[in-house]
Amino acid sequence: MNYSQVYFGKPLGQLMYEDIEHFFSTEKEETDQLEFKSYNSNGKLEDKLSGLIEGITAFLNSSGGVLIWGAPEGKKNPIQDRKERVFSGNLTSLPLAIEKDWLISKVSDKIIPLPAGIRVQLLRRDDYQVCVFEIDESRYSPHQTDGKYYMRIDGQKKPAPHHYIEALFKKISYPQLEAYIRPSSFNKIDKGYSLKIYFNFFNFSPFENEEYFNFRVLVSRGMFMRGAPVSRGYAVPGFSKRGTEFSPVDRLDILHYGQGHGVTEDIEFYNEDIDNPNGVASIMIFFGGKKSPMKMNKYEIKLINLSIENIMKPVTLFTVVFENMLMSEYYSSTGKSQLIEQEGYVR
Q: Which residues form a coiled coil (predicted)?
């Protein structure tokens, strides 16, 4: 895939040093297809190459992407509570002694099996140099370096878990599903605030459709407006746990590549939660289908921040805890007991 065309507006072979400068003239975050590595003259070059090669290996074992070596130094995201770094400003120049053939040789020698689909461009201007790698998803994965396997997930390079490597060895593939939310509006109501929110789901696998797609949304405080129990003692189908859980009654038979599937729901937050200084509402999304492993998203809203003044831009009230995380990753990081307790089961 021509990632350079996507991100820089021109093929890799036509890139110039100024194009990378312009790219970082605004703040950028790493994604599953983008990785940025700055260059610091301190330390050994071999150590720097190790981190570089690990990043390339992760792209080979995942869906490919672009790695920029000589990017600006990453800084803490100015949005409060965000863990991701942002990159902008001056590039960190590589030594001019680094040459393309030498670099390709170093990378190839350290990755097993021998990789294909790696393209390198060194961009120079006067005494400054930056390197751009364009890496395709490998048909011969999994690849390793120094006896370790890596993958990209949630915009980061991470050691690949056993089940992922096993799937690559068996060439097990599944649709790449992702979910995102888009807060539309907050409105003042008699008993608190009402939030209109779009839940959007996508299939990013070009040649693999998902079947029987389904999802489930939980809120820890407040409730879905349509799910509130009515006077007859029951709620609208699809809502449960007294309106704090929503899942569609009918599954989507086919989710095609590039097809977006979304629903809009209103969530009401009440004054007793808003007035609580420790009031934090969590929104959790679980989604998957017949072919793909389940993933999950988690967002938080500090309810004490709700007011007439700050609801004009509802997206600023949200903190992204994580997005599109495999359930297996969640279990390995938190342990299954937390999820069981979250569901309200007694241990």
A: none
Distance CA 244, CA 45 (A): 54
How many helices (H) and strands (E) are present in the chain, helices listed first? 8, 21
Residue 195: in which H helix or E strand, if any? Answer: strand 192-203
Angle at Cα 245 formed by Cα 241 and Cα 250, nearest 5°? 115
Whole-prediction pTM value? 0.53
DSSP helix/strand/coil, 7: helix
- Indicate the residue type of 45: L
- Which domains are present in the chain? 3-170 (3.30.950), 177-342 (2.60.40.10)
Q: Which of 243, 249, 203, 246 is nearest to 223 (CA)?
A: 243
Which contiguous run of DSSP H or E holds residue 51?
A: helix 45-61
Which of helix, strand or coil describes residue 276?
coil
Residues 123-181 pLDDT 10s:
999 999 999 999 998 878 899 999 999 999 878 888 988 878 887 777 667 788 899 99
CB 109 within 8 A of CB 168: no
CA 195 to chain centroid, in Å, comes to 24
Q: Are 135 and 117 spatial neighbours (Cβ–Cβ below 8 Å)?
A: yes
Alpha carbon 174 to chain centroid, angstroms: 17
Angle between helices 100-110 and 45-61 (to 10 degrees): 60
Distance CA 7, CA 98 (A): 25
